[in-house]
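Narrative summary of target 7.
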Amino acid sequence: LVNVAREVAKDLEDLKGDPGRKKPLPVLIGVGNSKITACLFSLLSLTAVIFGILQKYFTSNFFVLVFAISGVKLLLALTDLRQGKYKEAQNGFKISMILTTIAVIGEIFLK
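Modeled conformation, tokenized:
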């Protein structure tokens, strides 16, 4: 889900460089709506993992710690997106995805 937000941020970043060549989401629904879409997908992914923690699907302290760091990075990426810093936002989304992947792998091996 976060990857969708990253792709939207990338489309927003490329919007000025690709006039007329393709029809990315920001062209179809507008910049503001694209930002809202990216935020919704990001928050949906955060909610899903938090639900997993609350339901005890993810139980290791390592997972919770690394996921918390990932969540902070995701929220910072959303702030960058809101401020029009699209390259920083997409990099923040990537880092958040990598951290979450590390958390899941750690959860598997630490159980």
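The mean pLDDT is 90.
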